Amino acid sequence: MGSNPFSICFDQYYLNGSLMLSFLQANAKRNFDETFEVHVKMTPDLRRTDLKLSGFVRLPHGFGKTYRVAVFAEGAAAEEARDAGADIVGGPELVENIRTGQVKVDFDKCISTPSMMEHVKKLSRNLKQLMPDTKKGTLTNDISRSVKEAKEQSVLFKKDKTAIVHVGLGKVSFSEDALRENVGAFVNALLLAKPAGLKKSSKYAGYVDSFHVCSTMGPSFPISVQSLSMAADRYNRLQLR
């Protein structure tokens, strides 16, 4: 792992002040702006079905995509959602139209007021991971704030059946600093999402097995756990300023 040029340069950003994401960017030769992807292999313990791993991260420099937001609300809350920039707003009628297929689930994020959940719960098969949830901040009465945050670039992540987390953290065209800070924010969020059921208490021991970055169509590069820890620590220092 240490002999990989990208890994070495990522490490040197924190040790010597120089990060060379140009290695990855130089390999993104497609005729579209490729996504900067992260693939995290978690330790074997995370294959246990009783250990859930999911969360969301608000990227400091966004994802490079405009999100469509749907809000289930009525009355003043519905007006608040529209004023905040929600793309789709409605009450029980919207729920029924989605359930019957008259309205497609072509939005990226979904928010609901608590009073609407009696209706929205009928859409569990339609919405799947988009179902409003208090832990995600999408089941709330603070509609204006939630819509604005949803329109900002937050990204959901969760482990798959093989205990790997796949997530996009921006575009290859982003600056080196922007991508580095997005990585730091994600690593911090990943640490906060660490299941309480894991036995080991130190940061990444018994949690992260390996961490790779790549562009959509490019080769994959490993990043050391030491650099990940430094990235998360630097992100936290920036938040305190």
Describe this structure in words.
The protein is an alpha/beta fold. The chain folds into 2 domains: 9-64 and 154-239, Ribosomal protein L1/L10, rRNA-binding domain (Ribulose 1,5 Bisphosphate Carboxylase/Oxygenase, 2-Layer Sandwich); 69-151, Rossmann fold, CATH 3.40.50. Helix content is 35%, strand content 20%. The two termini are 34 Å apart. GO terms for molecular function: RNA binding; structural constituent of ribosome.
Percentage of residues in helical conformation: 25-40%
Query: Class by helix and strand content?
Result: alpha/beta
Gyration radius, to the nearest Å? 20 Å
If you consult CATH, what is the topology of the largest domain? Answer: Ribulose 1,5 Bisphosphate Carboxylase/Oxygenase
Instruction: Please report the number of helical segments.
Output: 9
What is the tally of beta strands?
Answer: 9
Mean pLDDT: 84
Distance between the first and last residues' Cα? 34 Å
Using the alpha-carbon principal axes, give the shape. globular
Number of domains: 2
Low-confidence stretches: 1-9, 12-20
CATH class of the largest domain: Alpha Beta
Give the full name of the CATH homologous superfamily of the largest domain.
Ribosomal protein L1/L10, rRNA-binding domain
The appropriate CATH architecture of the largest domain is: 2-Layer Sandwich
Question: Main β-sheet, in a few words?
Answer: 4 strands, antiparallel
